[in-house]
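haha ok so turns out i had the wrong file open the whole time. this is the CORRECT one, sorry everyone. sequence first:
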Amino acid sequence: MLLVLASGVLACTRPPQEATVTTRIGWVTSGCMAISGDAIADGTPVTVVALGTGDTATVVDARVTGRGTTERKCPVRAAAASGDGSLRFYTLSTPASSPIEVGIAVAGPVARKDGGVDVNGDGRADQFTRCTASEGISFAVWTNGRPHTGEPFWSGYEYLGYDVEPDCPQTAR
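then structure:
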C-alpha cells in the first residue's frame, strides 16, 4: 500500500514535458535573464536568441554567472519584479563579440536546427519575437512555423513601468 501511495504522489507531482521546457525559457535585457526557474546554478549553459530590430535574430551561447539579486547586478529587476513576483533574475556572461541587449533565453541543453533553436524538440527551428505593448515588452516563442499565428508555445512580459508606443501585431487565430 505504501508503494502504491508513493507512486501516486510521484506521478501527481511530476510536471508534464512541456511545462519542464517552458520553465527553462525566459527573457534577457542588458545581460540579465528573467526566468521562472528558481534553482539555476552558476555555470549553467544558456542559449540566447538575441532579437535585433525587425526580424533579425542571432543565436548566442552564454552562461549563468550568478543571481541578479540587486539592481546593480540586474538593472531591469525592480520594474519587472513588480509586474511578476514569480520571476528570478540571473546575470549572464557572453562572448565580448556578442553582447545581448534584448533576447529570449533557454537555460540548459537545447537543440539547434537550421541556424536557429528548436525548443519543443519537433525537429524545426522555432520563431522568437518581441514587440512593445502599452507599458512593456512582450516576448514569445512560436513552434507552429509562423509567428503571431495561433497561441505561442511560451510568452513572457517585461513590465517597464512607463508608457511605450505599442507595436505588437494582432495575433491571428
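Confidence is low (pLDDT under 50) at residues 1-19.
again sry for the mixup
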